[in-house]
Amino acid sequence: MVRVRREGFRQPVHHGRHEGITVLRTQPRHVASRRVHWSVSGLVMLLLVAGCADPIEFEPLTADPADTPMMGAYVPSGVWNDLGALRALEADVGRPFDVAHWFTSWDHAYDPVPVNDLLDGGRIPLVSWQPHHQGVAAIAAGEHDAYVREWARGVATAPGLVYVRPFPEMNGDWVPWNGDPTAFRAAWRRVAEIFAHEGADNVRWVFGPNVTDEPRTEANRLEHY
């Protein structure tokens, strides 16, 4: 599971699925508590279905990760310089993770070290790429093309798939890229076009919205982003 951490929040709830990845993010306690009965109901239904069905036969893994469920994790100490904390968590879980997640901002150049270390160990890197000081309108206008091109060229040299999650939780008012869906869409398309032009066909884009729209207004609906 990929856990997204944000200050002031504690309880993890399901956030969504991206190419077979179950993404978790943290929510306020009062939000998480409202979802407990949904989880219990889903578990009861799952048990009922399992009890009535034939024994499950597990299929072997296929070459395309999108076709198989995967498990991933985010470790607060990161994966920038070594994978010690990730390996310790894997030892506790009893299996290696398929995906390892971390955060970086648009203030940092592409770093091949964590990407290549994870790929060398058979894991898929998942990086949340956050423009804290670069507005989506400026990105859409091409003001940061040189920086995006550097990232695209770096990802293109990676020896495997790289999951990139730009502008995460865009429908939440705690991130600076919230509030302008039109510019957001234009920025995303421009970034994706630059990656395609640079031959980074090993990138897989992860659309990572918040579980609820905040604020809950028509203009801020997830469907507009």
Task: Give a concise summary.
This protein has 225 residues and is α/β, with parallel strands linked by helices. The chain has helices spanning 29-34, 36-52, 84-93, 112-120, 136-140, 145-156, 181-197, and strands at 2-4, 11-18, 21-27, 72-74, 99-105, 124-130, 162-166, 203-205.
What features would you describe in this structure?
- This protein has 225 residues and is of the alpha/beta class.
- 34% of the residues lie in helices and 19% in strands.
- The protein contains 7 helices and 8 strands.
- It has helices at residues 29-34, 36-52, 84-93, 112-120, 136-140, 145-156, 181-197, and strands spanning 2-4, 11-18, 21-27, 72-74, 99-105, 124-130, 162-166, 203-205.
- The strands form 2 sheets. Strands 4-5-6-7-8 form a 5-stranded parallel sheet. A 3-stranded mixed sheet has the order 1-3-2.
- A hairpin with a 2-residue loop joins strand 2 (11-18) and strand 3.
- Helix 6 (145-156) packs across helix 7.
- The radius of gyration is 19 Å and the shape is globular.
